[in-house]
């Protein structure tokens, strides 16, 4: 059974794509093959205000991560950020008066960069906590993308401050603690303590850093740039926003067990029937979106992990492995065991 094309990952601008491609080149990856694998024409990378689908970008990231053989490829790729080319958000940051204003102006506009995730600002005893919620579906890609985004924000702040030693108070990551050598790489890049197995993926920034003046502040120019950015944001449109938000909530709730439509709609502050109605208008449905996300994640766990069938079933919110088996066979026409066997045979060949 052929899987329906996913439309739940939105789109991305070209600069983040170029950033990862540059990291891939430094890892001796054939970029032409990477683009072909992701279905991206080279000409797409040179279009003014061009955007790629989130599905293309996720396929590209998966290929680059796999081919790089670099356990911290996402962290490594952050060094290739080019803030002056990072869409209009870079210019907004450069013309802000202090770091706090730069973040305040940039956060509502992050969709211009892409739909990879959403940043949430929370108050913190030391200043603020920037929590990033990844919206992509492939677990292998998610962990690298989180590293990249948090590290890119830190490098971006250093660029604005003209201070390569500027550092946040702390970094929090949900991933398990890696090897001591990898922990050292995290702390060298961020310049601060990095805490693992946390409840959020976040940057904690203290008040003194937030209040630091930026060298190129220009309020008149900032106002003009903000108006221009909002016009561009309106041109992108938000037709798929509900689907993106629904997919994100589903991914967050799945490991907690079986989820109901009303649970998901509650997180979106709407009734279950209303959610279904709006999704149908966008050419989807709650069940189709749930099945799509479960299928994507199942394929990952089956091919890239050693989790048992029972463990995978729990990760996907199924009551037991038998229910997972039936669902997977409905999606693909074959058993999950066959997918795992093919992946294992391919790795040995």
From TrEMBL:
Pfam families on file: Arabinose_bd, HTH_18
Keyword set, alphabetical order: DNA-binding, Transcription, Transcription regulation
Keyword Transcription in annotation: yes
A cellular-component GO term for this protein: cytosol
Segments forming domain HTH araC/xylS-type: 244-342
Gene3D superfamilies given in the database record: Homeodomain-like (1.10.10.60)
Molecular-function GO term, any one: DNA-binding transcription factor activity
PANTHER family the record matches: HTH-TYPE TRANSCRIPTIONAL REGULATOR GADX, HTH-TYPE TRANSCRIPTIONAL REGULATOR VQSM
Protein name listed in UniProt: AraC family transcriptional regulator
């Amino acid at each position: 059974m052929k899987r329906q094309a996913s439309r739940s990952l939105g789109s991305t601008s070209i600069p983040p794509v170029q950033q990862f491609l540059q990291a891939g080149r430094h890892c001796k990856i054939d970029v032409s093959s990477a683009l072909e694998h992701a279905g991206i024409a080279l000409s797409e990378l040179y279009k003014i205000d061009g955007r790629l689908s989130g599905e293309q970008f996720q396929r590209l990231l998966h290929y680059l991560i796999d081919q790089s053989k670099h356990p911290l490829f996402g962290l490594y790729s952050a060094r290739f950020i080019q803030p002056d080319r990072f869409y209009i958000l870079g210019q907004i940051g450069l013309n802000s008066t202090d770091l706090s204003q730069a973040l305040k102006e940039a956060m509502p506009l992050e969709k211009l960069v892409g739909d990879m995730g959403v940043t949430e600002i929370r108050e913190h005893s030391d200043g603020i906590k920037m929590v990033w919620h990844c919206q992509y579906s492939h677990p292998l890609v998610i962990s690298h993308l989180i590293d990249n985004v948090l590290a890119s924000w830190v490098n971006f702040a250093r660029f604005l401050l003209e201070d390569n030693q500027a550092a946040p108070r702390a970094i929090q990551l949900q991933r398990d603690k890696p090897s001591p050598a990898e922990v050292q790489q995290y702390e060298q890049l961020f310049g601060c303590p990095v805490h693992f197995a946390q409840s959020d993926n976040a940057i904690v920034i203290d008040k003194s850093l937030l209040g630091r003046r930026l060298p190129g502040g220009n309020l008149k120019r900032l106002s003009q740039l903000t108006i221009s950015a909002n016009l561009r944001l309106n041109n992108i449109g938000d037709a798929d926003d509900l689907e993106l938000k629904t997919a994100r909530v589903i991914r967050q709730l799945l490991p907690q067990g079986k989820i109901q439509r009303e649970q998901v709609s509650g997180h979106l502050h709407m009734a279950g029937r209303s959610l279904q109605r709006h999704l149908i208008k966008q050419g989807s449905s709650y069940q189709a979106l749930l099945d799509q996300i479960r299928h994507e994640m199942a394929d990952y766990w089956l091919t890239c992990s050693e989790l048992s069938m029972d463990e995978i079933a729990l990760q996907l919110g199924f009551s037991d492995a038998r229910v997972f088996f039936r669902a997977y066979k409905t999606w693909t026409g074959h058993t999950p065991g066959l997918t795992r066997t093919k992946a294992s045979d391919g790795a040995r060949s």
